[in-house]
Amino acid sequence: MMGRGGRGWWLYISRDEDKLGGRQINRALMRRIWYYARPYRFKVLGLLCTILIITGLSLIPPLLYRELIDNALLNGDVQLLNMLALGMVLIPIINALIGAGQRYLSATIGESLIADLRNELFAHLQKMSLRFFTHTKTGELMSRLNSDVVGAQNAVTNTFISIITNIVTVTATLAIMFTLEWRLTLMSIVLVPLFIIPARRVGRVMRDVRRESMDLNAKMNGALNEGLNVDGALLAKLFGRQADEEARLEKHSRAVADVGVRYAMIGRWFFLMLGLVSAVGVALVFWMGGHYVLQGAFTIGTLVAFGRYLTDLYGPLSAMSNAHIEFSTSVVSFERVFEVLDLPLEIEDMPNPVQLQEVSGAVRFDEVSFSYTEGGDGGASLLGLTADGRRKLKEIEEKESNAVRVSSRRMAVEGISFDIKPGQLVALVGPSGAGKTTITYLLPRLYDPTAGRICIDGYDLREVSQLSLAHAIGMVTQQTYLFHDTIKANLMYARPDATLAQVESACRAANIHDMIESLPKGYDTVVGERGYRLSGGEKQRLAIARVILKDPQILVLDEATSSLDSKSEALIQDALEGIMKNRTSIVIAHRLSTILAADVILVMSDGRLVEQGHRTETQSAHEILLTEGGLYANLYQTQFRMLPQMEKRVVRE
After folding, report:
1. pTM here?
2. Which CATH class is domain 363-374+409-477+553-652?
3. Residue ranges per structural domain of the chain
4. What are phi and psi of 264, to 5 degrees?
5. Which of 129, 502, 579, 613 could staple 625 via S-S, CB 3.0–4.6 A?
6. DSSP label of 496
7. Average pLDDT over residues 579-590
8. What is the mean pLDDT of residues 400-425?
9. Are 206 and 266 in contact (CB under 8 A)?
C-alpha cells in the first residue's frame, strides 16, 4: 500500500491513466444527470443565487481589514472603527442565515433526486425478466439502490455546490486582486497549473479506484445478504459452516479495506503536494509584497488584504482540485445507476398491446421450445461493464458461430404442441426434470419461448399486456413466498380491494381459516421473514388461499400440495377441486385423484411431450393412456397406483 503512496506514486498514476485510456466525463452523461435535476430547476436557480450572495459577502472582510489598518487605526477614526467592527459581525450572521436557506435548497434537491433515481431504478428492475434475477445477487442490486444512489446524491448536494462556489470565489477574488496589485496577482497565477494538472491526472485514477471500491462493496453486500437471510443462516447452522461464512465475509471485507487505504493514500499525497504549492505561493507573494511596502508602492493594509485574498484564492483552487476528484468519483455512482437503467428488457410489451378482458381460458402451445441458457443471463453480465466493455462483449458474442451456440444449448422443452379448451383440467405428469415446471413458467410469460408461440384465447402472449395476463392467471408455485407482514396483508397482495369477509371465505376454502383464528392476533399475525413462523403446510395453504382470493380464469398449480402432510393434503383437495371448476386449470399432478379427474393428461419426458390423452364421452384420459402402454402406463404402475391406498389410510385416520 505504502509503495503506491510513496515514491512510486506518479508511476502508478501514469500506469492507471494508460489503463483508463484517458477516460473523461462526457457531455452526454452530464446532460443525463441534468435530466433528473431539471424538475427542480427553480430550486437550482435559487441555490445558485445563494451561492453568489454568500460568495460576494465573503469577499468583503479583507477590504474591511484594509480600511481598519490604513484609515481607522492610523487616523484614530473611532466612528469608522465601530462601523467596521459592526460589519465584521453582521456579514457572518447574514452569511449563516443565507447558508441555512442554501442548505435547505440543496437538501431538498438532493433528497428529491435520490428518491426519483431509486424509484426509477426499482421500477426498471421490476420489469427485468426472471432470468435476470436468477443470475444476479440480491445484495449487489441492493448496493445499486442504496450506496450508488446515495453517492449520486452526494455529487449533487455537495460536489456540484462546491465546484460552483469555488469557481465564483476564484473569479471574484482574482478580479479584486488585480485591482489591488496586478504584479502580485500575476505571480499568484503562475502557480495555478500546479493545482490543475495533477488534479486531472489524479482524478482519473481515483475515479477508477472508486469504481473498484463500489464493485467490492457490492460483492460484500451480496455475501452479507446470503449469510444473514433466514435461509442462509439456517443452511450454515445445519452444515456447521459458520466459520467458513465468516472467512468468506472477511475476505470481502479485507478487499474493501485495502482499496479504501489505497484511495486514502493517493488523496493524502495529492493534498500534501497542494499544501506545499500553497505555502510557496504565499511566501513568494508576501516576500515581494513586503518589498513593495518598504518601497512605498502600497500600504500595509493592502498587503494584509492581499494576503487574505491569496488564501481565498489558493483555498478554493485546492478545493476545486479536490472537487474535480470528488466529482470524477461521484459520477461513478451515476454511471453505476445508469448501467442498471440501460439494461435491456428481455420481456416487454409491444406498442399498444392487447388487453385481456373477458378471458375464456383457451390455451395453445404451438411447437414451443425453450432453453434457459439461450437467453444468456437476462442482462446480468452487463452490470459493472463500461460502454467499451459492453461493446467488446457484444463483439465476442457476434463472433460465436450459430452452430456452436445451437449445439451447446440444452433445451428445457422442445417442440411442445397441445391445445386446452376453456374450463378443462390439465394434468402434467412425468419424471423429475421432464420440463413440467418450465411449461408453467412459460404460460404466465415469466420467460419467452426460444421458438414457437403460446396463445391465450387466440392471442400470442407477445401481443398481450403483461399486466392483463397477470390478472388472468393465478399460480401457486413449489416455493411459497410470504412478506414479513401480517397474514391479512399477505393475502390481500392478490387483491388489495378485498373485504375481510372475502379474505375469510378464501381461507375457509383453503382450510386455513380455523388455524388463523386460533392465533392470538388472528389475521393480524406477522408471519416473519419469508413466513418462517408458519409450517410448510400452513404457508402452502396461505398461498392457495391467496390465489383463490385473486379469482383468476386460468389456474396453474405447480406441486401445490407438495408441502402438506397427508391429512391436510386430503382435506384441501376438495377445496382445490371446487375452485378448479369452470376454470382452465393446469396442474403438475402427483395425486391419482387429480389425474383421474383430468380432461387432458400431458406426459413429459426429457423436455418433450411424449404422450397426451384427451377425455372422450366413453373413456377418461387416464384410461386412454393406460391402453397405449407407454410412459404413462409405466408411471402408473410404479408411482400413481399406490396412492389410492395411501389416501384411504389417511381418511381412516
Report:
1. 0.69
2. alpha beta
3. 2-341, 363-374+409-477+553-652
4. -65, -40
5. 613
6. T
7. 84
8. 72
9. yes
